[in-house]
Structures are given as C-alpha cells and as structure tokens.
Design brief:
395 residues; alpha/beta; Rossmann fold; 2 domains; 8-stranded mixed β-sheet
Length: 395
C-alpha cells in the first residue's frame, strides 16, 4: 500500500472535519493522501490540519504554484489510484454528474481515469430531492461508487438519511478498491474467527476466550490485497468489517456447515476460529436450576472443521498451546494435512486472547519454522497472507 495514492476531495459539508480522521486512517494504512479542498470546505476546516496529518501539501486552487501537483490542473488526476470525495455535497455531486469542471476538484474528477468513490453528506431533504437522486443514478451508471449516506442525527438537529457514513466504512471501501490490483486479486479466501458457544441450557453455554480479533485482521488484510473474502465468525463484540461476506454462526456444528458451504470454490481456508472441542450431549430445554450438589455434564467431541474440510488448495490452521508449542503445532500440521500452522503460546500475561498484539511461530508443511516477534494482529495477518500468496502462486 505504500505506493498507492489517493486524492481526497473535501467539500463544503459540515462533516468536513471528519475527513481529517479519514485522512489520518488512510495515511496509517500506508496510503499517500493528497487533499484537494473546495473553497467552501476551507471555511469549515483548515488546510493545515490535512497537511499535518498526511505530510503532503493541500491543493485549493488549480492555479496555485506552491503544490507540485497543481501546476497543471490534471496532474493530480494522473497520479491518483483513487479519487475519494468525502464528504461530498449535493452541489459537487450535481457538477460531476453534469461534467462541470470549474474548480480543482471537479477538474480532477473529469480528467481522471482512476476509480472515483463518493461519500455524500447533506440534509435529508437535499439527499432525497429528485434532482440529487437522478444525479446519483447517473454517476452510478458511469461506474462511480458511493458509500452512504447513513441514517442518523444531522447537524441541523433533524434525523434522517444524509449523515456522513462512518469513517471506518469509507476507509474499508477505499482500501478494497485500492486492493483490486493487489497480490491476492481474484483469489477467493475463507477466514474463520472468534470462538463457538455450545449450549448447556437456554441461558448458559460452554465457550472460550477468543475475541475474534485475529481472524478479523486476516479478513480485512486479505480484502485490502484484492481477495474476495468470506468471514465465518462466531459470537464477538467486534464491528463487522465492510467489503467482506460475513456468515455468523454460534456452535461448532454451525461453523462446520458454514465453512463447508463457503469453501465450495475457495482457494484458501484460514482457520483462526477457536472451535469448541466438546459440546453437551443433551442441552436442557429449560434453564437448569441451581441444586445442592455438583452439576454433571456429559460432553461429546465436536466435529473437527479442518479435518472435515480438506478439499481446499491451501489450508492454514492455528494452534493455541500452553506447553510444548512447536511439538504440538507440528503434530497438528501433520495430523490434519495442513500447509501452514500459526502457533500461539496462550496463558499468562502474554496471552493473545483479546490483545492487540500476538507473538506467533509459523510452521509450514515444507519443514520451515519461523519464530516471529510480537506484532500487531494486522501485521501478523500480513505475514500469514504472504505465506498464503506464495503457496497459491506455487500451485
């Protein structure tokens, strides 16, 4: 992503201040952000904010000579991998639909061959106006994408459709578009995440400490590298990532059924989920009452998803171990015929459950063992996907 360039168009919507956060998150993702502001936008938020966040000059005038990209009004159009207009007013949407190019931003859009993504933000009545809706339909027909608007509280105090979409959703769609030419473009990958819950009664269940953060990080990273991703997720408090197909499950049996269905045409399965090994044989139909003695539960083995789903070209498993990390991971690698195992030491202060970082060891079927330093889960996801890419390219 380091070489990708996004032209961020900021227009005169009250939501313009949120574009600073968007510019920051794009920059953190390794994207070079070149901001173009309309004159109205500069009345709401200062260009200095974007320059400080992105490290690049901000363009406000097509004849400005301080910015190397502003000497010719089409220069930004030529260097952009994506034109992202966020927020976009009804006025700017109308001008783009009509091919009007009377400022630097609209000139850039008219001159570019890069994909264009628009995140509208305006009063509900303006968004619902037939003229605006016709302009949006026209732009969609031309291949321009839209994120939002959302429904919610508006700056005017009203409530309705027209609110600036959440920054995380805009970011996800922008990264997905940038990833179309990534090293996993065209690949279909299934990722599992979080733990499963095996019911004891309608209230209680057997579960584990998995938060789902690792699997979500893998799914998002694969999406951003161009893959078509299906995320099969157990119960989690995490926000659902945009740009991936999500299948929500609860039990181990549901996980197996969903993975089988998703893997029909998949090229890789990355099994990050912590699937329960045992489940109560006969869950109670009514809530169990607390008695005087112990509660005896008869448990049965659940189906092993990785063992049951073997007809996927590349399969990656995870091994969470409290002892003999490498030896136990090697046994799992061999027993399930995996291409790669990601081994984690769990328990103690450095346990990865719920944490933002993870220290893992990668063990491959070729015999290679790579001990990684503590990394963010996104960084670890990228390392895992590098291995998946190489395995797929070798086939």
């Amino acid at each position: 992503m380091a070489e990708r360039k996004v032209v961020l168009g900021v227009t005169g919507s009250i939501a313009a201040y949120k574009a600073v956060d968007l510019a920051s998150k794009l920059t953190q993702a390794g994207v070079a952000v070149h901001t173009v502001m309309t004159e109205s936008a500069t009345k709401l938020v200062g260009p200095a904010s974007f320059r400080a966040i992105t490290g690049h000059a901000v363009s406000t005038d097509m004849f400005e000579l301080t910015n190397p990209f502003a000497i010719e009004h089409v220069s930004l159009a030529e260097v952009a991998d994506l034109i992202l207009i966020a927020p976009a007013t009804a006025n700017v949407i109308a001008k783009i639909a009509c091919g009007i190019a009377d400022d630097l931003l609209t000139c850039t859009v008219l001159a570019t061959r890069a994909p264009v993504l628009i995140a509208p933000a305006m009063h509900t009545a303006m968004w619902e106006n037939p003229a605006t809706q016709q302009n949006v339909r026209t732009l969609r027909e031309r291949g321009i994408g839209f994120v939002g608007p959302a429904v919610g509280r508006l700056a005017s105090g009203g409530y309705g459709e027209g609110r600036f979409a959440p920054v995380v959703e805009i970011l996800a769609e922008a990264l997905r578009i940038l990833g179309r030419s990534g090293d996993l473009a065209g690949r279909r990958i299934v990722v599992t995440a979080a733990g499963t819950r095996e019911p004891i009664d309608p209230v209680r269940f057997l579960g584990n400490r998995s938060s789902g953060k690792m699997g979500f990080a893998v799914a998002e990273a694969a999406r951003d590298r161009g893959a078509t991703v299906t995320l099969v997720a157990g119960p989690t408090q995490l926000a659902k990532p945009s740009g991936v197909d999500i299948v929500s499950v609860e039990s181990a049996s549901e996980m197996l059924e969903a993975v089988r269905a998703a893997c029909g045409d998949a090229e890789a399965l990355i099994m990050s989920a912590a699937v329960a090994d045992y489940a109560p044989v006969s869950p109670a139909s009514e809530k169990l009452k607390k008695g005087d003695g112990a509660l005896d539960l008869k448990l049965a083995r659940t189906a092993d998803v990785l063992d049951a789903v073997r007809d996927v070209p590349v399969r990656v498993g995870f091994a969470a171990e409290t002892e003999n990390l490498v030896d136990n991971a090697l046994k799992k690698l061999d027993a399930k015929g995996l291409d790669l195992v990601v081994a984690n030491a769990v328990g103690g202060e450095e346990s990865p459950f719920g944490a933002e970082t993870n220290a893992a060891t990668l063990l491959s079927a070729s015999g290679e063992i790579e001990e990684l330093p503590r990394l963010s889960k996104r960084e670890l996801a990228e390392r895992i996907l590098n291995r998946v890419r190489d395995l797929l390219d070798a086939r």
